[in-house]
Amino acid sequence: MKKILHFNKRSLGNSGFTIIELMIATAVFSVVLIIIVFSIISITRTYTRGITQTNTQNIARNIVNDVSQAIEFDGCGGTDGACSATEANPTPGTGYSFCVGSREYIYQIGWEVEPSFLATDQHSVNGLVVTDPNPAGSTCPGPSRTFKKTLVPNGTEFLNPNMRLSYFNISEVGSTDLYNVDVEVVYGGSSVLQNPTASNGTTACLGTVVQQDFCATAKLDTVVQERID
Length: 229
What we know:
Layout: H1 9-12, H2 19-74, E1 96-100, E2 103-107, E3 112-113, E4 123-124, E5 128-131, E6 156-157, E7 163-172, E8 178-187, E9 193-194, E10 204-205, H3 209-212, E11 216-225
Parallel strand pairs: 3-4
Antiparallel strand pairs: 1-2, 2-5, 5-6, 7-8, 8-11, 9-10
């Protein structure tokens, strides 16, 4: 006796996925992937912000330490015999110099350091350079100079690319052997800065979060006593 088998056509299709189920699964996967991508971007921005701020602070600290040690152990040089030879009202993009002992510091305010010089305003291959000993025959503090496109011979640059010196002042406290050393270093292009070429320490990062990821400021000051008369 033959046994007749009956198949339910609907039951045969239950082992696969419908188009709607595939669309739902794809949508869920896409949402999860977007969340992961944005999380990675956020972590990367936070990391970049922290590294940028740390590097900027370290550069400012190195400058303050170098100048302070020169004043403390080498004494004051210059034609006026004082360490208060920094320009009181520096013009952005103009080079100035002063000496502490045998060290000559050559600097300019407000212009972004760019080693491969860009033929635009507010860029320079030099920011704050120190030479030790200072060049033979030079007067220190020397006259204003332009060193935007030419590296200082035998000089050591303090600033990293995309940084600028926004404030630099050394002043004697009265007629004592005490000196104030004030430095502000800024990281970031002009497009992410407020008052990018200001020389009075008012340069700041713009307010949006994205811009602050690639911008940092560090201002340090100290008082140092000259040990050598």
